[in-house]
Design goal:
This protein is α+β, with helices and mostly antiparallel strands. It has a single domain, classed as 8 Propeller (Methanol Dehydrogenase, Chain A), CATH 2.140.10.10. It has four helices and 14 strands. The strands form four sheets. It has a four-stranded antiparallel sheet, with no helix packed on it. A four-stranded antiparallel sheet has the order 8-9-10-11, with no helix packed on it. A hairpin with a 4-residue loop joins strand 2 and strand 3. The relative contact order is 0.15.
Length: about 250
């Protein structure tokens, strides 16, 4: 941010990463974070005891090439070919679950995850924090990020972890069912390394031949390559899993 500029409060544009400035049919590479953002739509949790926010995050970059596209009902409408991949410096991880000190503006601890963390977070009065992973694990960590417990649910978790009391007993519940851009590949049977490579090849061939239909058909699948391994860990589906806490 530049406080002396008329654009104060607006991010400064770095031309080589600006898809708007570079224009149509120019592939801008190495854009970090990707269109998913560093944090997606899922909620973070705040603990008044620790004074920390517990935040699910993405660690993903992308290449992005805008092009003119006509709207087709029922088809992804992105107006670009997008390729997503793990951000540098994360040992191949595409997500982190972090504890954030907003007063100091710093990360207190960070727990890497193989895929983006798209679940909501839950912080309890007992200093236990819950979150879910795209592979389908619900995890419990302590206030220092040490893993206390994990359980593999039937599908990837993008829902919110919740707690309630019934008859004097406390329960933890989570709905699992993978979705979002990672879920597009699973729903279409596209998520495997071979299929991801074939998808990228089809995009490149369509672009080289000027075949807009071939490129448009893959426009919404930018996450397929980045999340290709997800099919090795989980499947589609929706199921509510409830845990009873010990007395």
């Amino acid at each position: 941010m530049d406080p002396k500029s008329d654009q104060y409060g607006r991010p400064q544009v770095v031309a080589k990463y600006s898809t708007q400035q570079n224009g149509e049919d120019t592939n801008s590479t190495g854009i970090c974070p990707a269109a998913l953002g560093t944090k997606d739509q899922q909620p973070a949790a705040y603990s008044p005891k620790t004074g920390l926010f517990y935040v699910p995050t993405n660690h993903v970059c992308m290449d992005y090439e805008p092009y003119k596209v006509s709207y087709t009902a029922g088809q992804p409408y992105v107006g670009a070919t997008v390729s997503m991949y793990p951000a540098p410096g994360g040992d191949g991880s595409m997500g982190n679950f972090i504890a954030w000190d907003a007063a100091k503006g710093e990360i207190v601890w960070s727990k890497p995850e193989q895929f983006s963390v798209w679940s909501g977070a839950l912080a309890t009065d007992g200093d236990v924090v819950f979150y879910g992973t795209l592979e389908g694990y619900i995890k419990a960590v302590d206030k220092d990020g040490k893993e206390l417990y994990k359980f593999k649910t039937p599908s990837g978790i993008i829902g919110n972890i919740t707690t309630y009391e019934q008859g004097g007993k406390q329960y933890i519940a989570v709905l699992s069912g993978v979705g979002g851009w990672a879920g597009i590949g699973l729903a279409g049977g596209l998520l495997s390394p071979d299929n991801a490579a074939a998808w990228h090849g089809a995009v490149d061939q369509g672009r080289a031949q000027g075949d807009e239909a071939a490129v448009v058909g893959t426009a919404g699948l930018g996450a397929v390559g980045g999340y290709a391994a997800l099919a090795d860990y989980t499947t589609l589906g929706g199921q509510l899993t409830v845990f009873g806490l010990p007395d």
